[in-house]
């Protein structure tokens, strides 16, 4: 792309050009997220689905792993897996009476529903209108229903004594901010957002996964940098060799660090 640099602000959205589903490895990249975080999300949600006939919504379903898991829980009556892009989901999930797929862009207003539990993980941080979207989603919850919002918490890179990793990671965040409006610090305000929406029984949890040999997160960040490779070169002072070295290093697995992690905020309407 001509004429863009570190100071350019683009008006793109997640999936337009960055992380579009046509990328060869996109489903695999999303599965690495599931591999890393599903066990925590599942533990968190298990304690909330204690009533029979629970209706669930999983927004920005990605690989569909959480929606599929939810659909297998005995107290769950119905699960809706909602995403702006559904063709990968449709090729992966077996739709049934209990599990349906809805194609919807959360920024649009032509969808609503009534649910007992809504899960939205690593989505709102990437959407510019996140504050209003959170408000909109909370209206889709029945009284007494549970909202589980998880987003990135980035408290690791500064502590990593590895200049190459730190440089590429911080450049990646800046390019995401400038391209699609990502806010990697948004999770810090989830608590107060939940409070001002009147949620009760609010709890928080943070998990920082490892980046080490054979860890899914090492491969995830390497694939993420590869997916953004051209954009990172266009919009920063990184050069091709430095970026390629950083990508390969993560794949070879000779780095030990804590990845940026997941902050979860849970509240009851
Ligand atoms: C980083 S992935 C997270 C996937 C999954 N929630 C997880 O945690 O494994 C973000 C997901 O949100 C979806 N998404 C992005 N923008 C969206 C929008 N405006 N409306 C609905 N879904 C969106 C993407 O297609 C993608 O599946």
From TrEMBL:
Native source species: Limnobaculum zhutongyuii
Pfam families: Methyltransf_23
InterPro entries: SAM-dependent_MTases_sf (IPR029063)
Recorded superkingdom: Bacteria
Lineage: Bacteria, Pseudomonadati, Pseudomonadota, Gammaproteobacteria, Enterobacterales
Keyword tags: Methyltransferase, Transferase
GO biological process: methylation
Name by which UniProt lists this protein: Class I SAM-dependent methyltransferase
Keyword check for Methyltransferase: yes
Signal peptide bounds: none
UniProt GO molecular function: methyltransferase activity
């Amino acid at each position: 792309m001509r004429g863009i640099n570190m100071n350019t602000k683009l008006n793109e959205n997640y999936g337009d050009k960055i992380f579009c589903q046509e990328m060869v490895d996109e489903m695999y990249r999303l599965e690495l997220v599931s591999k890393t975080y599903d066990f925590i999300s599942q533990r968190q949600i298990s304690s909330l689905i204690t009533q029979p006939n629970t209706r669930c919504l999983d927004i920005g379903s990605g690989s569909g792993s959480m929606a599929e898991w939810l659909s297998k829980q005995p107290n769950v009556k119905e699960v809706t897996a909602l995403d702006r892009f559904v063709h990968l989901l449709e090729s992966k999930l077996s739709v049934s009476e209990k599990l349906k797929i809805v194609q919807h862009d959360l920024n649009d207003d032509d969808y609503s529903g009534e649910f007992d539990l809504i899960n939205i993980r690593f989505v709102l941080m990437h959407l510019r209108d996140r504050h209003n979207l959170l408000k909109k989603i909370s209206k889709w919850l029945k009284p007494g229903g549970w909202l589980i919002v998880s987003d990135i918490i980035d408290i690791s890179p500064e502590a990593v004594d590895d200049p190459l990793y730190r440089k590429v990671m911080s450049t990646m965040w800046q390019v995401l901010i400038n391209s699609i409006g990502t806010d990697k610090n948004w999770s810090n305000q989830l608590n107060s957002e939940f409070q001002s929406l009147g949620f009760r029984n609010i709890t928080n949890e943070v998990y920082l996964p490892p980046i080490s040999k054979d860890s899914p997160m090492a491969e995830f960040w390497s694939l993420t940098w590869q997916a953004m490779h051209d954009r990172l070169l266009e919009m920063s002072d990184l050069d091709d060799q430095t970026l390629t070295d950083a990508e390969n290093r993560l794949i070879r697995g000779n780095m030990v660090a804590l990845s940026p992690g997941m902050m979860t905020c849970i509240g009851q309407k």
